[in-house]
Amino acid sequence: MTQKTKQNAEVAARRQAVAKYYLKRIDQSKIVGLLKEDGIEVSQPTVSRDITYLINQWKKKSETLIDDLIAREAAELNEMEMEATGNYYDAKGRPPIDEDDCGISSDQNSMEKWMLVRLKIKERRAKMLKLDGPQKIEHSGQIIVNLTRASCRKDDV
């Protein structure tokens, strides 16, 4: 094992130990002492740099995980929408069967149901992708503020 490889392995092992203690909410000065007990001589600034490194690595990993989850969720929503669309067109293409007392065939009810399913899927996708941004509200009226001066003098009470 080369000197550089040995050093990298030691740093990785130290950071793993720092992460273990940091995740238990132990402060940096105590981590230094615990590492000393484990046979790892290290200073508080080194522990601080290790924690900064670990946090940055965790952020990168979580961004990747979130991106993967969004991609998977989007693919599932696409699949669900395709199925709902197929069911909608199946119901639309069938000849009307029986009608309920409102004069609406069960196929019309089925078509409406599948259209609502598609709408919910589209709403979920828009929310997930933040396509529906916050709406701006304009205020065109007057704002009236009444101010009164408070006094702290004993005579005014």
Explained architecture:
It is a single chain. The protein has a domain at 63-133. It is flat and about 75 Å long. It has helices at residues 3-23, 28-37, 44-93, 106-128. α1 crosses α3. With 157 residues, it is an all-alpha fold. It is built from four helices and no strands. The longest helix has 50 residues, at 44-93.
Write the layout of secondary structure elements.
Elements: H1 3-23, H2 28-37, H3 44-93, H4 106-128
Radius of gyration: 32 Å
Instruction: Give the N-terminus to C-terminus distance in angstroms.
Output: 84 Å
Strand content: under 5%
Question: Which word captures the global form?
Answer: flat
Q: List the uncertain runs.
A: 99-104
Rounded mean pLDDT is 84
- Topology as a string of helices (H) and strands (E): HHHH
Largest sheet: none
Helix content: 55-70%
* DSSP helical segment count: 4
**Structural class category:** mainly alpha
Q: Would you report the number of β strands?
A: 0
Notable features of this structure?
mainly alpha, 157 residues, single chain, 4 helices
Could you give a quick summary of the protein structure above?
This protein has 157 residues and is mainly alpha-helical. The chain has four helices and no strands. It has a domain at 63-133.
